[in-house]
Amino acid sequence: METGAITQYIDVAQLVLYAFWIFFAGLIYHLHQESKREGYPLESDRSDSIRVQGYPPIPDPKTFRLQDGRTVTVPNDFRSPQTLKATPSGNWPGAPLDPTGNPMLDGVGPGAWADRADLPDLTFDGALRIVPLRDAPDYDVAHQDTDPRGLPVLGADGARGGVVRDLWVDRSEAIFRYLELDVPAEGGTRRVLLPMNFCRVGERAVRVASILGHQFASVPQPRATDRITLLEEEKVMAYYGGGTLYAEASRKEPLL
After folding, report:
1. How many Å apart are CA 255 and CA 251, to the nearest integer?
2. Is the pLDDT of residue 47 over 60?
3. Cα 154 from Cα 199, distance rounded (Å)
4. What is the sign of the dihedral through the CA atoms of 8, 14, 16 and 20?
5. How far apart (Å, rounded) are the C-alpha atoms in residues 138 and 220?
């Protein structure tokens, strides 16, 4: 027999290959099961008593200790406090949902948000991660870039929605996350946030394609003026995301 052979039909390389296959199959099973720690069991369109979990089953609960001292155990029996403000467009399971109120705020489709913690994100050393530039003197706009403060903000229809008042910086990533806007509202102005990934900063104006000019007045507003919670970030992003489909009725129509 040659070197490495155990018998005439089995050698070490063959056993290593089989062991790798078994390990890889187990890894796939483990990762698939771990992915079900959140969002499962699924809700059934047929009955509230049906537990939809698929295969492999939901893993046993595990407790995670967070940076701020809190603990989170998943999976758990948490159910979203959100109420579905939409009705199925058909009588079959999985039918598309039609919003019943303001589609930009109903949390449906591209405007949906996750129930993240209603607490601000923190840096590694426990400071507020996302703050206005006025509270972060160590950061500023690069001299070769356009400073958007004072520029008008235009919606997809070209109408003016507000004026940039400040920028909000992510101190962990050293990038700007939001523009703070002054938008006209009843009795004065409102301060709302515009995510940087939903706008294009030009030399004379900031342009937004997802919503129209008059819709800036309804952007969800953070409770505080110097911080934003994870849940508030979800709702702000969801509003602009919802606008990609619901800002105009024509956006919901088929392309052909």
Report:
1. 9
2. yes
3. 9
4. negative
5. 28
